[in-house]
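Contributing new complexes? Match this layout with zinc ion.
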Amino acid sequence: MTEVSCVTCHRREHWDGPEHHVVIAGGLRRPTEAPALAAWRVIARSLAGELGPVAGECAGCGMPLTGPPGADLATWSWRFDLPDGPLTVDGGRLSPPMAPADVTARLEALHRRGWDLRPTTWLFQGCLIAGMLVPIALWVFGAIYTAAFLINYW
Ligand SMILES: [Zn+2]
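Output block (do not edit by hand):
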C-alpha cells in the first residue's frame, strides 16, 4: 500500500495495486498561481527529491499527485507548453533536456500577471470614501458655524 497525496489541495489516497482508496477528498484549495506554473513547482520539488515521484493527476484540483520519496510507482508524464516548444517530464526526466531552474524562469515569465487595472472598482471605492467624508464635513462645518456665531453675536 502506498500513500499518494496532493500538496496543493491535501487530497490523500491509498494505492493498493489497481485499487485507489480516497482517504481525504481534498479539492477545495486551488493553486494561487497559474496552474501550469503551480504544477511545475510541485514537479520541481519532486525532481529535487523533496517529494516522491509524480504518480498521477489529482482528481480534486488537477495538480500533480506525488507518492512518498523513493516510492516505486508507475510514473506520470506531464506536458508544459513553453514559448519555444513543448516540454515533457516523464519519470524524472525532462525532454528536451533542460535545467529545472531554466524551466521555472520560463514559466514565470510566461505566466507573470500584469497590473490588474479596474477603473470601475476604483470609481466605486472613490465614491464610497467620498461619501464617508460627508458626515465629517457636516460636523466640521457645524462646529465652525456655531463658533463663528457665538464669537460674533453672543
Ligand atoms: Zn489536489
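Reviewers usually confirm one structural detail per submission. For this one: Residues 2-110 form one domain.
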